[in-house]
């Protein structure tokens, strides 16, 4: 007996809560990952009139934050991509952190320096100026860090000398 096809969930609607401001204007200028962007500074400006002042309560005590964003400058997606530094060829996009995704969602861990009103001052910023921000969540090391995580050998080879 064949399995039923996946149900169509319809269309999801997302609205940006803010925008990134940084010196990185072009894709070629942006660091590839937050770890490669050490020290790169910028801000996240949240939209006024949405009660985000209240939503920011208690966030200032966190050293790092997850930022979920939209890769707004990618024209489409690719099922296979060539990761930077790859020596073993193209990989399935779901096995990479490529911006060329079916739903162009991105995720970065940024260092939170301070909050002034609706502006978050951040570092280790690997995003482009004007990138739409969809959500912000606290980074909690005890929940996020997993010791003994297995990676494919091609990732280990790519990472040699990266940092």
Describe this structure in words.
Helices cover 9% and strands 28% of the residues. By secondary structure, it is mainly β. It has a six-stranded antiparallel β-barrel with strand order 1-2-7-6-3-8. A two-stranded antiparallel ribbon has the order 4-5. Strand 6 (105-116) and strand 7 (119-123) form a beta hairpin. The longest helix has 7 residues, at 153-159. The termini are far apart. The mean pLDDT is 86.
Supply database-style keywords.
two-stranded antiparallel ribbon, 3 helices, about 30% strand, mainly beta
Strand order of the largest sheet: 1-2-7-6-3-8
Q: Summarize the helix and strand pattern as letters.
A: EEHEEEEEEHH
- Which band does the percent of strand residues land in? 25-35%
- Determine Rg (CA atoms, Å): 18 Å
Unreliable residue runs: none
Span between N and C termini?
51 Å
Mean pLDDT: 86
Helicity range: under 10%
Class from secondary-structure proportions = mainly beta
Number-wise, the strands total 8
- Give the number of helices: 3
The main sheet comes to: 6 strands, antiparallel, barrel
Shape: globular
Structure in a nutshell:
The protein has helices at 52-55, 141-144, 153-159; strands at 18-22, 41-46, 64-70, 80-81, 91-92, 105-116, 119-123, 132-138.
